Amino acid sequence: MANVDTSSYDSPHEHTDQPKPTHRVGIIVINGSNAIDFMGPNDAFHEANKSSASSIRYQVDLIGLQPGPIIGSSGIRTLPDKIIRPNLEAIYDTILIAGTREFRPFEGDHLLLNWLRRNASSIRRICATCTGTFTLASAGLLNGRRVATRHDHAKQFAKMYPHALVEADRLFVRDGAYYTAVGGMAGIDLCLYLIENDCGRATFLDVARMLVVFLRRPGTLAQVSEFLKAQSIQNTQISQVMDWALDNLTADLSVEALAKRAAMSSRNFSRTFTDEMMTTPARFVENIRVEAARILLETTPLSIQQIAHQVGFGNPANMRRAFIRAFQAPPAEYRHSIERPEEHTARPTLMKA
After folding, report:
1. 16: CB partners within 8 A, 6+ apart
2. What distance in Å separates the CA atoms of residue 310 and residue 313, rounded to the nearest whole number?
3. By C-alpha distance, which of 56, 60, 24 is closest to 40?
4. Each residue's pLDDT tens digit, 109-123
5. How is the chain split into domains, by residue range?
6. Which CATH architecture describes the domain 226-339?
7. 3-class DSSP assignment, residue 60
8. Phi, psi at 195, each rounded to 5°
9. CATH 3.40.50.880 fits 4-210, yes or no
């Protein structure tokens, strides 16, 4: 059972005599964190409190590692609500450790590690973003567990913590009571996932609208969007062709057709493209079609057949095969998992789930 109190709360959208149960959230902030890694989750939980659809209230504490202001990577300063001390009560339903972009030792880590080890079993959910995953691993809490961390930290993490299982190129991963995310906007994606599990889809949608989030990305997505990769191509001939391809997914996007549009031979186009993008043109075209299909599955009621035609797969069978390669699930199963996220209410243990 989570630590819950029943202090009353008047929603700006709803007035009721029935008090809402309170879920305590502690965001542990390491100096040097980007503001989005701790203020983004803080804002998401507070926006959930404003939703008339929410049946609970979040109370969020920013927790520092030492007295004095928390200093973000941009120099922003904010005062913590609590300080990590041996006697800090484990009154939290959810703990989130906001890491830094650059991995480096930080002051007060022994106090934090000891506090985590001592209290982990009484906290329902323990989350970490960016290098916060290193903190959880240093406490011995990720042994045998699947972990997401930034792609540029993955090799270092795997070398330092060989008993954890790094899932390369994922936005966030859940394993039992432990949730790890790569930081930045992925930390907000994770919090939206938690809010949807706690409060339901209506509250999640209210929060997403307030934060002007286009959609909640599932944790299985790659850390770098295929659309962003297409826009980052340095070779002008190829970049112009890929810009056209993004706007014309139903067109003939074969190697021969793309090479002709680039005024290059098929062989030279394939070699240049692969050197630039570290993948073949055919695989890249499939990936951008899958990403476009995923967005339509999440945001529209279009049928799978309609989506398959709209993004250029031609028929549902082709789209199904591509989805299984990308997400290990066919489109219908993927859509079902997005519409009904799994709810987790069990008390965590230190053992692998």
Report:
1. none
2. 8
3. 60
4. 788 999 999 999 999
5. 4-210, 226-339
6. Orthogonal Bundle (1.10)
7. strand
8. -65, -40
9. yes
> Is the pLDDT assigned to residue 221 strictly greater than 70?
no
Mean pLDDT of the chain: 79
Distance (Å, whole) CA 259 – CA 278: 17
Per-residue pLDDT tens for 4-47? 343 333 334 444 456 789 999 999 998 888 888 888 899 999 99
- Cα–Cα distances (Å) from 7 to 4, 23, 221, in that order, read 9, 10, 38
- DSSP assignment of 168-207 equals TT-SEEEETTEEEE-STHHHHHHHHHHHHHHH-HHHHHHH
Question: What is the maximal distance between C-alpha atoms in the chain?
Answer: 73
Q: Are 11 and 21 in contact (CB under 8 A)?
A: no
- What value does the mean pLDDT take over residues 305-316? 93
pLDDT at 292 over 70: yes
> b/e for 314-351, b at 16 or more Cβ within 10 A?
eebeebbebbeebbeebbeebbeebeebeebeeebeee
Token output for 229:
């990769």
pLDDT tens-digit readout, 42-67: 999 999 999 988 889 999 999 998 88
d(CA 341, CA 53): 17
Q: Which two tokens stand for residue 58?
A: 């979040």
b/e 56-66 (16+ beta carbons within 10 angstroms → b): bbbbbbbbbbe
Confidence tier at 124 by pLDDT (50, 70, 90): very high
Rounded to two decimals, what is the model's pTM? 0.62
**DSSP category for residue 312:** T
Angle among Cα 67, 41, 290 to the nearest 5 degrees reads: 145
Q: How far apart are CA 260 and CA 191, in angstroms?
A: 45
Task: Name the residue among 254, 259, 262 with its Cα closest to residue 237.
Answer: 262
312-341 average pLDDT score: 83
* Contacts of residue 230, Cβ cutoff 8 Å, sequence gap at least 6: 239, 242, 243, 245, 246, 284, 288
Single-letter code of the amino acid located at 247: D
User: What sign for the dihedral angle of Cα 29, 35, 37, 43?
Assistant: positive
